[in-house]
Structure formats: structure tokens, C-alpha cells
Amino acid sequence: MSAIVFDRICKQFGSFSALDEVSFRVEQGDFFALLGPNGAGKTTLISILGGLARATSGTATVMGYDVVQDYRAARSAIGIVPQELVFDPFFTVRETLRFQSGYFGIRHNDDWIDEILLNIGLAEKADTNMRKLSGGMKRRVMVAQALVHRPPVIVLDEPTAGVDVELRQSLWAFIRRLNEAGHTIVLTTHYLEEAETLCNRIAMLKQGRLIALEDKDTLMGHGSARSLRIVTTAQALPDSLMPLVTGGSGPEFELKLADCCALEDILGELRRAGIGLKDIEVTKPDLEEIFVDMMHR
Amino acid sequence: MRFYTLLQKEILRFWRVAFQTVAAPVLTALLYQLIFSHSIGQHVEPYPGVSYAAFLIPGLAMMSMLQNSFANASSSLIQAKVTGSIVFILLPPLSYLEFFLAHLLASIVRGLVVGIGVIAVTLFFAMPPFSHPVWLLLFMVLGCGVMGALGIIGGIWAEKFDQLAGFQNFIIMPLTFLSGVFYSIHSLPPFWQALSHWNPVFYMIDGFRYGCFGVSDASPWQSLAVVGVTFALLAGITLQMLRSGYKLRH
Ligand SMILES: Nc1ncnc2c1ncn2[C@@H]1O[C@H](COP(=O)(O)OP(=O)(O)O)[C@@H](O)[C@H]1O
Ligand SMILES: [Mg+2]
């Protein structure tokens, strides 16, 4: 059974089509990144899982439960951290988390609540009113609220926006531990390097359509080709290499590198021409470059 | 458990600020009682043997109950919507029925607490005989229930605080003031008297007065029927709104 299944999901807002026949699966145990520029439909897709929005057509399931027909089971199986920073100013952190547990039918949840608070670095703020927390702390409470019922599937919609770098690291360490403990994680993020280091699978949305769905390694592999940067002893390269040059001017050049065999050929050419190497570097495109590349296609 | 948690939260949120949500309306009612019973009280006796000061008590108590039970549900919902924190009750597996009942009951509790407070402080002015306590309690609960349901409708419908204020000023206030809080409707000109008979709030107050004094303008059974039907109708509308996700789930 897949953790999440989207089957031909369409969502119209009036005549505007926010999602257009989106279908994909997230498998149990995945650390899944949902990427796409602003307005691509990521939040709308997540809202459909939590019942905050209803699909115009198509179906979605969480752990096998239909999000409309079986909404109670589906919502018990998923913890969603919404994108917008929201909080109830009437209560303390602990009260907020106790109420949230109660909404999921869980009594006496303090042990787990304490464990979450410890992990997100809020143990000392347990009895502080929500109003008195900084933005980053409120955001972390929202993460805690999504975890009170130990959901097998955890969805984070841009969770690190507004959280400072250090805390971002500890938050991800915690999420990664949850993933290792068997929770399925789905996240949307602006910080592509986060998706690159954390996730094993990546989907890309553009204007409501799914344009890529791949293992991260595959996606990173077939992105734009690798490139080679060399610093030589000469001011010019042999003519045979000129078609490969993408930038730089003597003695520093940048060359397109189709694959690793191409490297040997290039080095051979240089040797034959009697040109020495002072420095050499092979660079792999990062997710950001692949992302930008796909979005412009 | 889910329902009980939501109810507990809704009660706690007004109780935490009881100074504004309970003490303030009780004080307001006390001032009305003070001013009206002294300025008009000497000259009228609305029912034989019932002083104006005593007559005023159930009217004021009911008016305060109705306003506060409306305010409870509507302000809680509009606030949660405007701040966005409503997602925290939309994401869990709460059914629309649980959602409805929790907000409704919390409103009734607030209404009753305020109502009992108003009665308690106004007893210094006059002591109604409380002839039919069961009728009395029934109309208290039903009246608050009607306004609690209306509060949920208003809170869901309104997108801004001022829309809610409009709802309050143009619907709730006229209905309560044209219902015989301060007078027996028999003292009104025929047109307004006839109009009052179309106002469900009139029956809430009249039924409540019957519980207090054993006399009223309409029969308590008629009042019960009107108030009961009004409640059933509003509850039906509210449940339908919640079930369809109107303005809450797009
Ligand atoms: N409630 C709504 N009414 C009308 N349009 C909406 C609504 N919610 C989202 N949209 C539109 O749907 C598109 C997708 O939005 P969203 O899912 O928030 O994108 P993302 O999260 O990828 O930035 C946007 O163009 C947005 O303006
Ligand atoms: Mg978004």
C-alpha cells in the first residue's frame, strides 16, 4: 500500500485551473520533496489531503483511506504542517498540544508531547503563551501540532520559512529521525538544497501539472550535463576542443562534459598539444540548476 | 473525546477572559435594571401583582443570555478564520456534528453563566416568584441554543469582523429590542404588537417570564413550539453549512 496516492486530481477555482490531472504516489518510508515555483499548486494539493480543499475531480488516499469517503481514518493517518504561520493566542504551548491531541481522540499524551518539545527545542517554553513566542518558535509548535497523533504520514508545507539556520538544522535532524523510524515525509520547500540533501524522491509541479517525478539520484543524473573547469599553462586550447568550451578565457576555461569518458578524451587532447594543467574541477549540476532548467522548458 | 476536547477549549476561551465575557454583560444588565426600574418603575405594573422591577429581570437576563451566546460562537469562529488558526480544528478527524455540538454547547454554557449572573445581581431589586422552574430552564437553554446556532452561522458566513458587527446590529439587536425586554407588548400600538408576534425572541422572553411569574402574553406551549421550531430550523441550516464545508473548506 502506498502512503499517498493522487489519482487524476483536478482543482478549479472558478475558471482557473490550479491542478490539472495530477497523479502520483508516495511510497511508505519515502522522504519526498514536492517542488515548484509559487502558485504551482503545491499547497492546494496538500489541502486536498487534509480536507481543507476538495478536488473538483479525481481521488486521493492516505494509507489507503479515501480523503473524502473515509476522511476520519485518512486524517488520523496524516499530520499536516500548514504553510501559513498561524496560532491560537489564547493558550500556552502545552495547552495547544493537549487540545490538538484531544481532537485526534488521544488522552494523556504528555509523555509524547514532552518528547516532541525536547526534540524541537521548546521544552523550556511549554508553559509560555503562544503570543509570546518568536515566529520561528511558533512555526515549530505548528510542527509539533502535526505530530501529536504520531501520524504515519507527515506533510510539511514550507516548514523552514522564517526559521533561522541553526534551528532549521535541528528541525531537519528530528524529521530525519522520524523518517528513519518509518514515518513517510513529504515536504515542499523553497530551499532546494534541503530537498537535495534530505529527500530520496522528487516531484515537480508547474502551473498545476506534474512535470517530473523521479528518484533524486536519477533526476540529478540526467540534469544538464556536468561541466569541467580547468586552469591551463596556455592561453588557448587546441581547435579540437573549441566546440566544447562554454565559457572562460585563457588560461581558465569551462568545458561541457557529456560523461566521464569525455574527460579522458579532453585530457588526451591537452597532452598531445603539450598543454599542462594547473587546476581541474568537475562540477555536477545541483538541484537548483536542474529545477530552473525544467521550469524553463 | 474529540468533541469533549473542542467543547472544553471553547469554554476555556471565554472563561479565561471572564471579566469581559461574563462580568461586563452582568454589569451592563445591572445598570439597565437600576436606571429603568427607578425611572419607570414607580408608574407601571405590567402584570397584576408584578412590579416593573421584577418584570424587567427575566427580560434583561434573557437579553444578556441571547447576546452572549451569539457572541461566543460567532467571535470564536471569526477569530479563528481571520487568524487562520481554524485549520487546527479542520485538519483533525472531527465530524461536522461534533464541530456543531461543541460550539453550540459552549455558547449555551456562556449564555447560562451570564444569565444566572444577571439574575443573581438583579435579585437585590425584586424577587420574582420563579413559579415554573422547569419552563424557566427550558427557555433559557433553548434561547441560548437558538442564538448559539445563529452565532455559528454568522461566524461562518462573515469574512471580516465588521460584517459580523452588521449581523449583530441589524438582526440580533432589533430582534431583542422589539421583543418586550423592557415592556409588555400589550402596551405597544397594534402594528408593533402584531409584528412582535413574528419575532421568535419575543417568545423566548415571554416563555421565560412565564417560568418566572406564571403569567405571560402568550401561552408557554405556543412559545415552546415557536422557539423549538426556530431552533430546529437554525440547527438544520448550520449542520448543512458545516456538512458542505461552506466557506470553511474550499
Ligand atoms: N482559495 C483559492 N481561491 C482562488 N484561487 C486560489 C485559491 N487557493 C489557491 N489559489 C490559486 O491556485 C494556485 C495554486 O496555489 P497554491 O496551491 O497556493 O500554490 P503553491 O503552494 O505551489 O505556491 C495559485 O495561482 C493560487 O492563486
Ligand atoms: Mg504554497
From TrEMBL, chain A:
UniProt entry keywords in alphabetical sequence: ATP-binding, Cell membrane, Membrane, Nucleotide-binding, Transport
Q: Is Cell cycle one of the keywords UniProt gives this record? A: no
UniProt GO MF annotations = ATP binding; ATP hydrolysis activity
Q: Which PROSITE patterns match?
A: ABC_TRANSPORTER_1 (PS00211), ABC_TRANSPORTER_2 (PS50893)
Where does the source fall among the domains of life?
Answer: Bacteria
An example of a Pfam family matching this protein is ABC_tran
Query: Where does the ABC transporter domain start and stop, copy by copy?
Result: 4-232
Q: What name goes with this protein?
A: ABC-2 type transport system ATP-binding protein
From TrEMBL, chain B:
| Transmembrane domains' residue ranges | 14-35, 47-66, 78-97, 104-127, 133-158, 170-192, 223-242
Membrane topology listed for this record: Multi-pass membrane protein
What are the protein's GO molecular function terms?
Answer: ABC-type transporter activity
Which terms are listed as keywords in the entry? Cell membrane, Membrane, Transmembrane, Transmembrane helix, Transport
Example of a GO cellular component annotation carried by this entry:
ATP-binding cassette (ABC) transporter complex
Q: Name one Pfam family in it.
A: ABC2_membrane
Its localization reads: Cell inner membrane; Membrane
List, for all copies, the residue spans of the domain called ABC transmembrane type-2. Answer: 16-245
UniProt record similarity statement: Belongs to the ABC-2 integral membrane protein family.
Protein name according to UniProt: Transport permease protein
Q: What species is given as this protein's source?
A: Formivibrio citricus
